[in-house]
Amino acid sequence: MEQNTLIQIAKDFGSPVYVYDAEKIQFQYKRLTSAFCKVKHLKLNYAVKALSNISVLKLFNSLGSGLDTVSIQEVQLGLKAGFKPDAIIFTPNGVSLEEIENAAELGVQINIDNLSILEQFGTKHPKTPVCIRINPHVMAGGNTNISVGHIDSKFGISIHQIPHLLRIVENTNMTINGIHMHTGSDILDIDVFLYASEILFDTAKNFKNLEFIDFGSGFKVPYKVGDIETNVEELGEKLSNRFNEFCKNYGKPLTLAFEPGKFLVSEAGYFLTKVNVVKQTTSTVFAQVDTGFNHLIRPMLYGSQHEISNISNPNGRERFYSVVGYICETDTFANNRRINEISEDDILAFKNAGAYCYSMASNYNSRYRPAEVLWHNNSAYLIRKRETFDDILNNQIEITL
């Protein structure tokens, strides 16, 4: 998106505001499908948790995507957005049997990641096919908070528990129609991914009624100019060949599934903020903006880096700034970052703001959550209104004291 377009959106809809470029989302989706074009049956299930606005979900539905969901509410959002139940996979962690049963009643694909629930569900619903999430004990991901396939992770059924798993399947006479893994996010080394895939292939041999193998996702996107990213084209070439070989040996064609989230929406997102104050201290120049970690928590939670540009003064001389928020906590977005000279009321654009940004926003400090705008076919569409004071009070109950 061009800077003038972003400036106009900030003027029209106010700041802070999230903006999503539909064309970039479409490009990333097609890039991934092209990388695995050698696979006869490919299914991409967009990870709803990355960005769950219903208009964005409708965009993915128009592309032919499925959905990866982790809560019954995300399942309901997917159905509301027009997805058919069989296009949705439900992969929760640590939820009650009741929630899984509710999802199953809606007709979506169930994915179970612990032996206790597997046995309970299989005993009560042996005719409902389920997928099993395996923990391959592979450490992958850019941060411990987003590395989910290692031995100490709460996610998945350990590969060392396969004998127990098979005993449950035999005793309940349930059908396992899919095998799944997810090692973590921001994967750089595709050889690690391929190594984990071999573990999944080896596990899959134990089940005779598979319809699909789900390899998760976690593909890294670049966060700045020159940054490294997952080479999905190379991964597509190598994994496709290995998958086709496995299907031939398995005796029937299976579906290769992925559940990308960040890869599809991260680079499509921009977070526009206005500079309230430029504050000089004895050692630092702060650019204090009209937002905080209540709207964008990833830099504080994960140490993630978002490129920040001054779109109000793109040709100004570069100076060093620490970009901070207005929350009554330390909320530093960027420390001692080189940015074109900043003045009060300038608009700063945070890049890579499409994934896990608005979806993790809150009302901390009783601040309103921002608006969301979708840029589609050269037009800006408001897809979520900025909250108001009435929204803050909504569901609160005043009592007489």
TrEMBL record:
Location of N6-(pyridoxal phosphate)lysine modifications: 49
Bilayer-crossing regions: none
Residues holding pyridoxal 5'-phosphate: 218, 356
SUPFAM superfamilies cross-referenced by the UniProt entry: Alanine racemase C-terminal domain-like, PLP-binding barrel
Record note on quaternary structure: Homodimer.
Its job: Specifically catalyzes the decarboxylation of meso-diaminopimelate (meso-DAP) to L-lysine.
Protein name: Diaminopimelate decarboxylase
Organism in which the protein naturally occurs: Psychroserpens ponticola
Gene expressing this chain: lysA
